[in-house]
Write a structure and sequence with these properties.
Elements (H helix, E strand, L loop, with lengths): L1 E3 L5 H11 L5 E3 L4 H8 L4 E2 L2 E2 L3 E5 L5 E6 L9 H18 L1
Parallel strand pairs: 1-2
Antiparallel strand pairs: 3-4, 5-6
């Protein structure tokens, strides 16, 4: 299972696996803005308080493969892009095993 914390609507996240033809289930949850920033180093907009987009994709051992930090409205990891990257990373791990 992949956990997605994003600005995407929860319904869009939950429906993404079927649309993208991947077997994983996605869960969409919320967390306090400053807690996420403390863990990730992401920016926090001071007023109003919100977390501009920040995204991470981890490989099977848990290492960061790609990260995206934004200080504005662009720079998001889109579900289609992440699904493609996950497939690529899995193929690389399968061929190196």
């Amino acid at each position: 299972m992949f956990l997605v914390a994003s600005c995407f609507l929860k319904q869009d996240v939950v429906e993404a696996p079927a649309r993208l033809h991947v077997a994983e289930k996605l869960a969409s949850e919320t967390a306090p803005t400053h807690a996420i920033a403390d863990l990730t180093g992401a920016f926090v907009n001071p007023d109003p308080v919100y977390l501009p987009s920040a995204g991470f994709v981890l490989d099977p051992p848990g290492e960061v493969v790609v990260s995206v930090y934004s200080s504005g409205a662009i720079g998001r990891l889109a579900p289609d892009d992440v699904a493609g990257l996950v497939r690529y990373v899995r193929e690389q791990f399968a061929t190196s095993a």
